[in-house]
Design a protein that fits this description.
- The protein is of the alpha/beta class.
- The protein has 2 domains: 140 residues, Rossmann fold (3-Layer(aba) Sandwich); 120 residues, HUPs (Rossmann fold, 3-Layer(aba) Sandwich), CATH 3.40.50.620.
- It has 9 helices and 12 strands.
- The strands form 2 sheets. A 10-stranded mixed sheet has the order 3-2-1-4-5-12-9-6-7-8, with helices on both faces. Strands 10-11 form a two-stranded antiparallel sheet.
- α1 packs parallel to α2, α3 packs parallel to α4 and α8 packs across α9.
- It starts with a strand and ends with a strand.
């Protein structure tokens, strides 16, 4: 069940999509939604620390505080209008500290929701996505920066490779799959294989026992770019939600994402639920 959700609100000077989308998810599941907006400490290069006036640092901190407060005000207005159960707060810290904090916070919720970082832009959301994915032990729902509208589950695409992370994501997504009108279980292969071979039939049978309408599809990756193969298939089938395992590991507090995971996070066009 999904009854308790946390969302990280973007404080960038652009339209926040994670907040409104999270509100639609909370509304669909009758869940409580907690929102947090981080006020980031000014980043001053050590080489010029002594040459930066204190007034400049104070000004940067004030701007960050205002951006977080504005994000909360926008969220509260929409959440109140939607009539959901919610709470919200701001928290000031470094970007790295925010990623660690959100990852720990998410452990106490059924689902964490974050926004995708816009391509070619350095943003705190990227670290927060990775922190939630690797540190929380909970599913993370990433909302693309081009998202239009709230939760839509006409066709959900489940990426299946038989691995542990995929199994975890599938289990975590069950409340969502039960609300879907159609579910495609997609397996990426490196060759066409034999016509009588149908890998994944066992997991499709498992899902069918949960009274889910399942279509099992085997697609062939023409190159090594699994992420683009999956996203192209999602576009071709009009999938509006993706479920997949999040691959990677943490080394000396630096997150190393797997190729397909990084590719999806950078090029996603529909919301993606990941579990690790």
């Amino acid at each position: 069940m999904i009854k308790d959700i946390v969302v990280n609100l973007s404080v960038a000077p652009i339209r926040d999509l994670a907040g409104p989308y999270a509100i639609s998810v909370a509304d669909a599941f009758g869940a409580h939604l907690a929102a947090i907006a981080f006020s980031y400490d000014p980043v001053i290069p050590p080489t010029i620390m002594g040459g930066v006036p204190a007034s400049f640092i104070d000004e940067q901190r004030a701007e960050s505080d205002k951006a977080a407060s504005d994000a909360i005000a926008r969220f509260d207005k929409v959440a109140r209008r939607a009539g959901i159960s919610f709470e919200s707060r701001t928290s000031g810290m470094s970007v790295a500290g925010a990623a660690d904090t959100f990852g720990r916070m998410a452990r106490r919720f059924d689902l964490a929701i974050v926004g995708q970082t816009e391509p070619d832009k350095v943003a705190a959301e990227e670290l927060i996505v990775e922190g939630a994915l690797f540190d929380s032990g909970r599913p993370v729902l990433v909302v693309p920066y081009i998202q239009k509208g709230g939760l839509k589950l006409d066709r959900v695409m489940v990426c299946w490779d038989g691995g542990r992370n995929a199994a975890r994501a599938l289990a975590d997504a069950m409340p969502i799959l039960r609300k879907a009108k159609a579910v495609d279980v997609v397996i990426v292969a490196n060759d066409k294989g034999k016509d009588d071979e149908l890998p994944g039939a066992d997991i499709a049978q498992h899902l069918a026992r949960h009274d889910l309408k399942i279509d099992l599809k085997r697609i062939v990756a023409t190159d090594t770019d699994v992420a683009n193969t999956l996203l192209s298939h999602a576009a071709d089938t009009s999938a509006d939600f993706i479920v997949m395992g999040g691959y990677g590991h943490s080394r000396l507090r630096e997150f190393i994402l797997g190729g397909a995971t990084r590719g999806i996070l950078s090029s996603m066009t529909v919301p993606v639920l990941m579990s690790h």
